[in-house]
Amino acid sequence: MTTSVVRPARSARVSTLVRVPAFWVVLTLLAAGGLRMAQMTGHFFAAYPKATTLSILLFALLAVPFWLFVSELDFLEREPAELLVVAFAWGGLVATTVSIPGGVALENLMAKLGSPQLAAGWGAALAGPTVEEIAKTLGVVAVVLIARAQVNSVLDGVVYGAMVGLGFQIAEDIVFAVGAVALAGQGDQVQPVIATFLLRGFLAGIWSHTLFGALAGAGIGYLVVSRERGRAHRAGVAALAVLGAWAFHVLWNSPLLIDGLGNGALALLGVLLIKGLPPLLLILLLVRHFQDREADYYVERLARLDDPSLITPGELAVLGSSSRRAAARRLPGAATAVRRLQRAQARLAVELSRADAESIATAEAAVRDQREALRRLGHAEAVAGPVSWRHRASTIATTAVAIAVLWVALSALGGA
User: Fold this and answer.
1) Residue 205: DSSP 8-state
2) Residues 288 and 312 reside in one and the same domain
3) DSSP assignment of 244-283
4) Of 108, 225, 237, 276, which has the fewest beta carbons less than 10 angstroms from its beta carbon?
5) Strand partners, 153
């Protein structure tokens, strides 16, 4: 295990954060952004109360599964909830309120230095990503400044970057949804909100700001963690990651392929895949790589215990893989118990990396408590259960419903 990937985890508590000067700077910026966003939202409610309410509700609901997914990326060493909130709030309050006027100003500059045609065609593709990616990346930097010890792996940077991107995405989508209502010019109608939700939320949400933020966050994480590397090397990798996020964002916003694939659902799907699949695949590969490296680091510490009452050889293999952890939760009637045991074992691994005797003893007791709860359900260990016909049927049904919903959304928007 190289130190460029994982360092011993250290806790970050609110009581310690308030003693860091950067915390108060970040808090002030969040307050200023929150005030500006509240003013904007107030104007929206005054003009379009029904549409604004629906847009906030829809995109808030959309944020829930994304939040849960992002927060689960680092299962073994979970990030503190308060820092996740800071990252999300930075994206939704600071980055958004800075990027809206900043993007407009940069587009105006393009029109003056270049031409109005350049600004009209490429303004959103060049000005938007330039301002937005810088503003979002600063959110990960803010987390590092107030809790540097908590960013101890590249995967941590991915999580915080994705959370900043998620906050930005949700806030921006709400602004765009109400803007679509104003652009339609038909009063307080909900149809433009639904169309915006389908396109910017449901279809584009998978591979837009959350992915761009994750890539930039990986670069910041590498810059912070890889201290055995030279400063120039680390800065170069971080700059390359941010540049990559910017390039993917430019591609996503660009006018390329707007008319190249024709109309209809398949054409729209093709454009989404061509523009969105590259960053999605890259982030998935990065996440899988760093998850495996981090799992090796923590599972190795659990293996040194050589104590089946804490973790069995089978559970060691399970804990290091997200797919095997999920499979283990198929044990009949024991999904919750297995999950709690896995959580307790992951916590023990983190405490072992911190080498605090009292915390290790507490974590070991928690593992044994969860082990006993699992045994009372008739299972000796948390390993993969058999794949039942109910599980297969549920998977097939869920896939069919997802494809049907996707096709309806594509058909509705492709024919618009």
Assistant:
1) G
2) no
3) HHHHHHHHHHS-TTTTTT-SSHHHHHHHHHHHHHHHHHHH
4) 108
5) 6
